[in-house]
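This section describes the prediction task in plain terms. A model, or a person checking by hand, is given the sequence of a single protein chain and must write out its three-dimensional structure as a string of tokens. No templates, partner chains or ligands are provided. The sample shown here is typical of the held-out split.
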Amino acid sequence: MKHLLPFCLLAMLWATGCQNAPEELDTPLLGEGDSPSQAITRPEAPPLAAQLHEAFEQYREPTIQDLRFKHADIEPLINNLPADFEVEKLGSSLEDRAIYEVRIGNGPVPVLLWSQMHGDEPTATMAIMDIFNFFKASGDGFDSLRNRIISELTLHFIPMLNPDGAERYQRRNVLDIDLNRDALRLQSPESKILKATRDRTQAVWGFNLHDKNRYYAAGDSPKTASVSFLAPAFNAEKDINEGRANAMQLIVLMDEVLQQYIPGMTGRYDDTFEPRAFGDNMQKWGTNTILIESGGLKEDREKQYLRQLHFTILLTAFQAIADGSFESWPQEAYEDIPYNDSGAFYDFILRNATRMYEDQPFVTDLAWRHREIDVDDARAYYLRGSISDLGDLSTYHGYEELDATGYTIVPGKLYPQALPDVSALRQKDIRGLLSQGYTDFAVTNRPPAQASARWPVALIAPGKQPNNALYQYGNPSFLLEKNGRYHYAIVNGFAYDLREDLPAFKLP
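The expected answer:
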């Protein structure tokens, strides 16, 4: 993968290690305040979904391996599609990048899908490329599915609606306008293209495909909302007409599919009407609109498994629209999907640590989030930690957690000798020096920031003094001490186990 991450934490600290396998958990499908007797009974997920999920790897587009691809990466994939696909340039972004429509099928029901109207939300674009590969294939046991879809539906894809934002890996377009708040004024060319396509196709169904940050929880559970849905309201009263009810039923079907793979890890957005948003207006204009957002999933920061799940639920949805089977799913079960709890997760929580202030002990939790710092023209990144909050964080959850009960926080020290470069540091016993309290090292010829961030110690310029005080938005290095010994080091918001019976640190 192209991103630059700190190396994995030691297995004895977190048993999850560094594998790229999602965590599967069990949670009943209940809404807020529901009891098991109140939950709506759902049909079983269609067997087709499991078949698609299992077959995914043969359709995965191999040229896209992580989230930070650009318009230049997908444009040849689009332009080289075979004759069964219709490819049309709809217009250009402000920086003259082509925005394409890809059409598949000749059925009477038009379905419109648009992805990456926010440039840093690329999960669905990856899945769309995989879906193109699926429709290019034959003789794999899915020909009857393809034939049913293309005979009943006409699929209209607009992948990467905001290519200028994708170029910078940023949410907004080059005008710094949020395209999803431009459905009324239509000031941006990208917004005009989307509106004109909906009007031309008179889409019966619309899939508004997004990502969200990794810090949402599924209701009040200690699980991430890894995929979230919304059947947007078309008016302030949040009325439910036939089209919105259809969207709810199809969401229930897709949610049931996801429960087979990420149980209890789906969420639902509040449906307060947003008069400027495309999803709400699509619903108002007569398109049965479904918002799907990809969130966070442990051990899947690049969202490659969530990509697979998108592939699975979208093709399953196409089949359900084509044969009308979505109508058998209970609309009421939509309300059982828990609301998203925004900001409920942190990347790392240190719990019950003791900090000293004027010789008095105070027990506190500390929570870090890791910000992605762009490098290589936003094709790669490294992680920079900061303390997002501290105090009583017992109602919050961490992707990783460490119970520091009985441990005292001791600020890290600066190693007394400046080193010429990291090769000299590499010769040192890093665990041994951390065990002596040295977390910061002055290095004359430091590597770039993205390489420095991968070390289990802080690399600073000679003559600079580290600031290892504890405060919100700081990024201190410190030790956890118990019985006169340092057992853990916390550097850049990552924890390192210092016990001598563990393997040596793997250095960059």
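For orientation: The CA atoms of residues 406 and 482 lie 7 Å apart.
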